[in-house]
């Protein structure tokens, strides 16, 4: 059974029709890179979107004149600016050290009460199972979010820290096995503006190459998955129902 069939069986709405979404990223800027156009499209349709950033972003500069503390302040300010451009209602930093020794379990235990408090209709995060993904923060964040979905609905785990809640759906960006493609042609410029708000990361000589790469990738997705007869841009996601996140080996192919 495909993910689409399972979502239909469970009467789950289209990804763009959810009333609320909680988006978890490893570092400030990852949400924009992976899903900026879609997030803007969601907020324009009335979806209440909140961000949670796992790490403080202190490893975002190799300039020895910039202290870790300065980098944290810079990146938190950039995160707020980029969030505002996309219409995100709230942006919170969980304070784990960028590149630090925190564990997947540390983050999972932090996220469970958050999911129970916000009770989102959709959770979005980076895909930790992408082939060759080698950044520990990305792997730990994606896996911690997935595990938090399992435990947020369990009345025994973290008992007393909010009422159990089952997140209906999860969408992974940066996935090698996407099954949903979103037309972001009309929100692409907002995505670029939000990316450029992260000046410490993208106001560099590499920006022309990066922006060209992002654009070419989005155009190829649009051509292959949405409409080969006209130009446009798309973002890709692996969208799964919560029930597919445990003992469901067909999820990779669904």
From TrEMBL:
Pfam families: PIG-L (PF02585). One of its GO terms (molecular function) is hydrolase activity, acting on carbon-nitrogen (but not peptide) bonds, in linear amides. Gene3D superfamilies: LmbE-like. Signal peptide: none annotated. It comes from the Bacteria. PANTHER family: N-ACETYLGLUCOSAMINYL-PHOSPHATIDYLINOSITOL DE-N-ACETYLASE, N-ACETYLGLUCOSAMINYL-PHOSPHATIDYLINOSITOL DE-N-ACETYLASE-RELATED. This is PIG-L family deacetylase. It comes from Sulfobacillus harzensis.
